[in-house]
Design goal:
Blueprint (H helix, E strand, L loop, with lengths): L1 E5 L8 H14 L4 E5 L7 H7 L3 E2 L6 H4 L10 E4 L15 H14 L6 E5 L6 H9 L2 E7 L2 H5 L1 H6 L5 H7 L5 E8 L5 H14 L20 H9 L9 H21 L15
Parallel strand pairs: 1-5, 1-6, 2-4, 2-5, 3-4, 6-7
Length: 276
């Protein structure tokens, strides 16, 4: 099983929507998928439960760090939902190392039952994010095309607690950054200018789709994506023409990310940095 953590220290960048899309896409492609929601807000839990496509575990995700390693439903697609007790984990500093170890032990226990694990994280730089990244194979960071979000990339890489470089150097040498994924992208002059800045500053961290100068993975701002998220719908199954058009627009980006995770393409082959 390969574990992908979707992370960013800024909220509102579309982490949960990306996690939801990837979960449905990988399941659609025949992969056994485990989805874990480590954000107490439950923005991954709600649409996946509403979709009815995944079996819901009888425990919440905080129990993966604090309780006995409970068995999951014997189904090919399973969700471990969010729980309010996640908020209390950071307030137990003496237990942080055991919490992280328990999460790693859980992933090892279910390793043969799934092909891919998608972990949606909270924006706070706390023990939940550390535990996820310390056990992950890959990280993916959705970002918005605004100056604040772009400036936050330095924190994503270099934060003293949860920076990807720190986690890789100290806790998890196998951790690989797939890349930055611009989200909520709009065809406005302002966003086009910001996209140019992102390419100039972080081109090695973007996910290339082709040889063209702007051929990088991204997720557009479309009302049908938000609608699918709120209704628990699968985007490409929605009957609206706008939803089908949007799916054709974003499918290449999801396919490229999935190719990294399932091992059919390496980050190095796509001319990315293999380490954050």
């Amino acid at each position: 099983m390969k574990t992908l953590v979707v992370c960013n220290q800024k909220g509102g960048v579309g982490k949960s929507a990306v996690s939801t899309l990837l979960t449905h896409y990988l399941a659609h492609k025949g992969h056994r998928v485990l989805a874990i929601d480590l954000d107490h807000q439950g923005n991954l839990t709600t649409p996946l439960v509403q979709s009815g496509r995944l079996a819901v575990a009888g425990i919440t995700s905080d129990a993966l760090m604090t309780g006995p390693l409970a068995a999951l439903p014997d189904r090919p697609q399973v969700l471990v939902p969010s729980g309010r007790a996640l908020l209390g984990l950071e307030r137990q500093p003496a237990q942080h190392t055991p919490l992280a170890r328990q999460f790693r032990d859980f992933l090892a226990k279910v390793d043969r039952s799934f092909d891919v694990c998608i972990v949606d994280t909270n924006p706070n730089p706390d023990i939940r994010v550390i535990s996820a990244l310390a056990s992950a194979d890959f990280a993916l960071s959705p970002i918005q095309l605004n100056q604040e979000a772009m400036d936050g990339v330095a924190g994503l890489l270099n934060h003293e607690r949860v920076g990807l470089r720190k986690i890789k150097a100290v806790l998890n040498p196998k951790l690989t950054l797939i890349g930055l994924l611009p989200t909520l992208v709009e065809p406005t002059p302002y966003q086009r200018a910001n996209f140019v800045q992102v390419v100039q500053r972080y081109h090695a961290l973007l996910i290339r789709l082709g040889a063209g100068p702007g051929a990088f993975a991204s997720i557009p701002r479309r009302s049908c994506i938000a609608e699918a998220q709120s209704e628990g719908a699968v985007l490409w199954e929605m009957k609206k023409t706008a939803a089908r058009d949007t799916w054709h627009e974003i499918e290449p980006s999801l396919a490229r990310i999935a190719a990294f995770v399932n091992g059919t393409k390496t980050v190095l082959e796509a001319n990315h940095a293999t380490a954050p």
